[in-house]
Amino acid sequence: MISDETAGALVIRPAGPEEAEVVAALHARARATYYPDGLPPSDVDWTDAWRGTIERPDAEVLCGVRDGEIVAIASFRTPEGGAADTVKLYQFHVAPEHWRAGLGSALHAACVERWLAGGRRAAVLDVHVDNRRAQAFYARQGWVPDPANPPAEDDHHLYLRWTPPGE
């Protein structure tokens, strides 16, 4: 196994339940960047929520580790009632202090590798309308507006779809 301590290299691996608190903290830092007034109040215990996702047998949580620190996270699974060949990307975050270093692209490529290996032919996600940085990132990765799920007039999310190139 490749060590998480490999100097400077990004190691992408499954997250462990014992890392839920670190993952939740990264999630909060990343989300706070696209809320102009800071994160909205929430009674969600994000550490417990992440631990539950990490332990969920039908989900995968990948983390990007550089110099022993978790710097990026992604979680995905087949959505309830969704087609078996479609996966939903529920969370995808890079620590803001590591933006524009290629970590998101590397993590996305690892997700795609897992999706294709698992027989997934499409992926879907929703992204907050104010998160322009994420929207631009997803567009560079080949995501397009999901024609099967146009946003409602008062919705705060855009729905995107990814398919392998050439399909």
Explain the overall architecture.
By secondary structure, the chain is of the alpha+beta class. The protein has helices at 20-32, 46-55, 103-117, 132-140, and strands at residues 10-14, 59-66, 69-77, 86-94, 122-128, 144-145, 157-162. A 7-stranded mixed β-sheet has the order 1-2-3-4-5-7-6, sandwiched between helices. α1 crosses α2 (46-55). It is globular, with a radius of gyration of 16 Å. The model has no long low-confidence stretch (mean pLDDT 89).
Task: List strands and helices in order, with pairings.
Blueprint: E1 10-14, H1 20-32, H2 46-55, E2 59-66, E3 69-77, E4 86-94, H3 103-117, E5 122-128, H4 132-140, E6 144-145, E7 157-162
Parallel strand pairs: 4-5
Antiparallel strand pairs: 1-2, 2-3, 3-4, 5-7, 6-7
What labels would you give this structure?
28% helix, 7 strands, single chain, alpha+beta, 167 residues
